[in-house]
Amino acid sequence: MRPCSGFPVWFWDFNNDGHLDLYAGSCLWSVRDVAADYLSLPHDAEPDCLYEGDGQGGFREVARQQKLTRVTHPMGANFGDLDNDGFPDFYLGTGYPEYSALMPNLMFHNLRGNGFADVTTADGFGHLQKGHGVSFADLDNDGDEDVFAQLGGAFAGDAFGDALFENPGFGNHWIVVRLVGTDSNRSGIGARIRLDIDESGARRSVYKTVNSGGSFGANPLAAASGSWQGRAD
Questions:
Q1: I need a surface site. Which of 16, 85, 113, 230 has the fewest CB within 10 A?
Q2: 1 and 49 in contact (C-beta within 8 Å)?
Q3: Residue-level pLDDT at 232
Q4: Which of 131, 134, 130 lies closest to 99, judged by CA?
Q5: Measuring CA to CA, which residue among 111, 42, 54, 86 is closest to residue 208?
Q6: Are 96 and 73 in contact (CB under 8 A)?
Q7: Which residues, including other chains, have CB under 8 Å from residue 27's CB and lie 6 or more apart?
């Protein structure tokens, strides 16, 4: 299974197992299909796809198992870790150039690798304007990632102000790692980081790959993570 017409796509490790996975958005459909999906009415639109990697070059499609069978029509998108639990969440900016293409932008919270919950309304991310560039970044340097979304359509009459969502924080510890290449690849893009932590008496690892996040938007290249109460090695 794959989208016939895709737009945002990115590699990430959604279940924090050390292997890269792939998210592929589907954007061929119209606002009517999005509305039909919300109302559980028949439609022919494809949902977005999520491919889980096995670390050996193989992937399997797991969108249904991860509760991601929605028709979303994304344009700009990106991911980050809102609550510093080591499991990436993601935001979809939606729409297409026509004036009528207004549909909800969406935020999904990662349930520690066991599915995703739509927290658009509950967490204050609700917005109906067309979403383009999206960035997860700790803009106020307080240890949690905020979200910036560039909003508005392609036509002059469809302009709209951008949105900045400040993260209130969740009380988890955090660390930022900034890699600097000395011979080549100055920003360390593609480097993989593993942080071993003691979380409430249990030992686990958090994995990060240095990249700019999703497409039609960019995150800082510094890798941030957290969510432990004891020791980090």
A1: 230
A2: yes
A3: 38
A4: 130
A5: 86
A6: yes
A7: 3, 5, 6, 7, 8, 73, 74, 75, 96
d(CA 105, CA 78) in angstroms, rounded, equals 12
**Of the candidates 106, 84, 107, 92, which has an alpha carbon nearest to the alpha carbon of residue 175?**
84
Angle at 7 between CA 177 and CA 29, to 5 degrees: 140
Ordered per-residue pLDDT tens for the chain, 233 residues: 566 777 889 999 999 999 999 999 988 778 999 999 999 999 888 889 999 999 999 999 999 999 998 899 999 999 999 999 999 999 999 998 899 999 999 999 999 999 999 999 999 999 889 998 999 999 998 999 999 999 999 898 999 999 999 999 988 888 888 888 888 888 889 999 999 988 888 899 999 999 988 888 889 888 655 443 333 34
Ordered DSSP codes for 149-175? EEEB-SSGGGB---EEE-----S--EE
Residue type, position 200, single letter:
S
Residue type, 84: N
Q: Read off the DSSP letter of residue 203.
A: E
3-state secondary structure of 77: strand
Residues 56, 152 contacting (CB under 8 angstroms):
no
Could you tell me the pTM of the whole model? 0.91
Token digits of residue 10:
């990115």
Beta strand 174-177 pairing with 223-226:
antiparallel
Residues 6+ apart with CB under 8 A from 90: 23, 77, 78, 79, 80, 107, 108, 110, 116, 214
